[in-house]
Amino acid sequence: MNFRIGKVNIKASFLFFAAAAYFLSDEMCKNYLCAIVFSSLHETGHIAALVHFHSPPTALTLGAVGIRIDKKALSMSYREECVAALCGPAVNLLFAVIFFILKEKYSIFELPFAVNLGLFVINMLPVKILDGGRFLYFFASSRTNPDFADKIMSAAEAVTAVILTAVLAASLALGIVNTSFVLFSCGLAAMTVVSLLSNLKKP
Fold first, then answer.
1. What is the DSSP string of 127-142?
2. How far apart are CA 148 and CA 170, in angstroms?
3. DSSP 60
4. CA angle, 13 as apex, 8 and 16 as ends, to 5°?
5. What is the number of other CB atoms lying within 10 angstroms of the CB of residue 180?
6. Gap between the Cα atoms of 115 and 51, Å rounded
7. How far apart are the first and last CA of the chain?
8. 143 Cβ contact partners less than 8 Å away, ≥ 6 residues apart
9. Rounded to the nearest 5 degrees, what angle is found at the Cα of 103, between the Cα atoms of 98 and 106?
10. Which of 39, 164, 194, 197 could form a Cys-Cys staple with 189, CB 3.0–4.6 A?
């Protein structure tokens, strides 16, 4: 499904609707809706940074595990790219701190705290398709060059893929089987491997 809001093209993929259909019919519905709200605020942090750096988004793609922001290529410096990459996780970290304080008195804030902490940790993983990976790539590029930055990303993604696979295997071995967790972990591990392979194929 495609539509436009101003000059921004919005695309909702099939996986977005499939994930929504699954989670909204599951007992995880409340968790999913909470994740959608704070994922949207996460993206607002990125968009605010892009607008500030005069590089507004040209398209948004809604996927199963997040939102991808497209903008004009090579329109920002490495420093600005680093800042823009961190603004999304920074929003989640801020909310996590606020809800951590509030949950000590009001248990209703435990879920928002967990969701924001989870979004912060996941997005800061050193995988190029995630904010942590984008920050690492642009930071390394600013200190060395894009080719060497690709090598650093390949090493970081290889380590991340091994860790994710080990965590998933350990959870299954210990009998900690949660369908949503397994699906998400498999999806994240698969995306990490795909990103790693794409880097390795570069000349």
1. -TTSHHHHHHHHHHHH
2. 33
3. E
4. 110
5. 15
6. 26
7. 35
8. none
9. 125
10. 164
Element of type H or E holding 61:
strand 59-62
Structure tokens at 109: 């804030």
CB distance 68 to 11 below 8 Å: no
Which amino acid is present at 96? A
- The residue with tokens 């040209």 is 58
Which amino acid, one-letter code, is at 157? E
For residue 113, which amino acid is it? F
Token couple for 1: 């499904």
Instruction: Give me the residue label for tokens 């699954």.
Output: 22
- Strands 59-62, 8-12: parallel, antiparallel or unpaired by DSSP? parallel
Task: Provide the CB-side half-sphere exposure for 189 (13 A, CA).
Answer: 15
Report the predicted TM-score, pTM, of the whole model to 2 decimal places.
0.78
